[in-house]
Amino acid sequence: MQPVSSPVALRVAPHDPYRPTPASPYPYPVACVVVQPPQDFVIWSMFSLTFMNHFCLGFAALIFSIKSRDCKVMGDNEGAAMHGRKAKYLNILALIVGITFFVSMVAVIASDPPPFHRAVKAILQRYQ
């Protein structure tokens, strides 16, 4: 025995791109907003800790970076952003202090080399 098929009426209308189809669950286009997670600056903080740790600024920046990463994992974007900003400011401060220290040392060495070399020689002879 074969199943009996009944005729189905199809409604054919011209397609209007500005009018949603009746089967659409959303009558209007929905904008999807992608929110970027806050930055934690861990790599920059490790660099500051390794190379520019004057006054322990790099260490403090690393602590705030890790706090920011923990908040981000827990889903607290506001806390992650706050700790990330503190880490960023501490990294900037460590960078400024490190560059200032480096430039001042180069200026001291370049300004009067003979006394500096005599002082280094005296220190090296003391330990030999």
TrEMBL record:
<keyword id="KW-0812">Transmembrane</keyword>
<comment type="similarity">
    <text>Belongs to the CD225/Dispanin family.</text>
</comment>
<dbReference type="GO" id="GO:0034341">
    <property type="term" value="P:response to type II interferon"/>
</dbReference>
<protein>
    <submittedName>
        <fullName>Dispanin subfamily A member 2b-like</fullName>
    </submittedName>
</protein>
<keyword id="KW-0472">Membrane</keyword>
<feature type="transmembrane region" description="Helical">
    <location>
        <begin position="89"/>
        <end position="110"/>
    </location>
</feature>
<dbReference type="GO" id="GO:0035456">
    <property type="term" value="P:response to interferon-beta"/>
</dbReference>
<dbReference type="GO" id="GO:0051607">
    <property type="term" value="P:defense response to virus"/>
</dbReference>
<keyword id="KW-1133">Transmembrane helix</keyword>
<dbReference type="InterPro" id="IPR051517">
    <property type="entry name" value="IFITM_antiviral_protein"/>
</dbReference>
<dbReference type="InterPro" id="IPR007593">
    <property type="entry name" value="CD225/Dispanin_fam"/>
</dbReference>
<dbReference type="GO" id="GO:0045071">
    <property type="term" value="P:negative regulation of viral genome replication"/>
</dbReference>
<dbReference type="GO" id="GO:0005886">
    <property type="term" value="C:plasma membrane"/>
</dbReference>
<dbReference type="GO" id="GO:0035455">
    <property type="term" value="P:response to interferon-alpha"/>
</dbReference>
<feature type="transmembrane region" description="Helical">
    <location>
        <begin position="41"/>
        <end position="64"/>
    </location>
</feature>
<dbReference type="GO" id="GO:0046597">
    <property type="term" value="P:host-mediated suppression of symbiont invasion"/>
</dbReference>
<dbReference type="Pfam" id="PF04505">
    <property type="entry name" value="CD225"/>
</dbReference>
<dbReference type="GO" id="GO:0060337">
    <property type="term" value="P:type I interferon-mediated signaling pathway"/>
</dbReference>
